[in-house]
C-alpha cells in the first residue's frame, strides 16, 4: 500500500475523509480509527516523509501545523480539559503511515506515558 498516496489522495479529495480544516499549506482530518473521542490528523499538503526530513528550508511547516493544531483543539473544546499532540517517527516511534502527521488526541483522560 502506498501511504504517501493515501494522504495525498485525502488532500486532493480523491478518497473520502472528514476534512475539518484546509489551507494552502496543510490539511486536517479526523482519524479513520480514532484512539480518543477527538482524534485529528494534521498533515502538510506537500509530502514530507517524517520528522527526519525536516530541514532549514521546510522547518516553518511544523510551527504552522502546531499553531493550527492548537486552534483545532480550542475549536473542539478540549483545550481546558487537556489534550496531547504526538508525532510518531519510524518503526520504534510507531509511525505506520510514512507521511508526516500530527495526531491531536483528547476528549478523555489519556493514559500517562
Ligand atoms: P501513525 O501510526 O503513522 O502515527 O498514524 C497513522 C494514522 O493514520 C493512524 O491513527 C490511522 O488510524 C490513520 N489512518 C490510516 N489510514 C487512514 C485513512 O485512510 N484515512 C484516515 N482518515 N486515517 C487513516
Q: What are the key terms here?
A:
single chain, 113 residues, alpha+beta, HIT family, subunit A, five-stranded antiparallel sheet, 3 helices, 5 strands, 26% helix, binds guanosine-5'-monophosphate
In short:
The protein has 113 residues and is α+β, with helices and mostly antiparallel strands. 26% of the residues lie in helices and 22% in strands.
Could you explain the architecture of this structure?
The protein has 3 helices and 5 strands; from the N terminus they run αβββαβαβ. The chain is α+β, with helices and mostly antiparallel strands. It has a 5-stranded antiparallel β-sheet with strand order 1-2-3-5-4, with helices on both faces. A hairpin with a 3-residue loop joins β1 and β2. The model has no long low-confidence stretch (mean pLDDT 96). Bound molecules: guanosine-5'-monophosphate (5GP). Guanosine-5'-monophosphate binds at residues 6, 17, 29, 31-33, 41, 88, 94-97.
What is the topology?
Layout: H1 3-11, E1 19-22, E2 26-30, E3 38-44, H2 60-75, E4 83-86, H3 90-93, E5 102-106
Antiparallel strand pairs: 1-2, 2-3, 3-5, 4-5
The structure holds guanosine-5'-monophosphate.
- Any idea what the CATH architecture is? 2-Layer Sandwich
- Succession of helices and strands: HEEEHEHE
Strand content: 15-25%
SS-based class:
alpha+beta
Summarize the amount of helix as a percent range.
25-40%
Number of strands: 5
Chain oligomer state: single chain
* CATH C-level name: Alpha Beta
Largest sheet: 5 strands, antiparallel
Number of domains: 1
Radius of gyration in whole Å, from Cα? 14 Å
CATH superfamily: HIT-like
Bound molecules: guanosine-5'-monophosphate
Order of strands across the widest beta sheet?
Answer: 1-2-3-5-4
What coarse outline follows from CA principal-axis ratios?
globular
Amino acid at each position: 500500500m502506498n501511504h504517501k498516496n493515501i494522504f495525498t489522495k485525502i488532500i486532493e479529495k480523491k478518497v473520502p475523509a472528514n476534512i475539518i480544516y484546509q489551507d494552502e499549506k496543510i490539511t486536517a482530518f479526523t482519524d479513520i480509527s480514532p484512539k480518543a473521542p477527538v482524534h485529528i490528523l494534521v498533515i502538510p499538503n506537500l509530502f514530507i516523509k517524517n520528522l527526519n526530513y525536516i530541514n532549514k528550508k521546510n522547518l516553518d511547516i511544523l510551527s504552522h501545523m502546531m499553531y493550527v493544531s492548537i486552534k483545532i483543539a480550542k475549536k473542539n473544546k478540549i483545550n481546558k480539559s487537556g489534550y496531547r499532540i504526538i508525532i510518531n517517527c519510524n518503526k520504534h516511534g510507531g509511525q505506520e503511515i510514512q507521511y508526516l502527521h500530527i495526531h491531536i488526541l483528547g476528549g478523555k483522560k489519556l493514559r500517562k506515558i
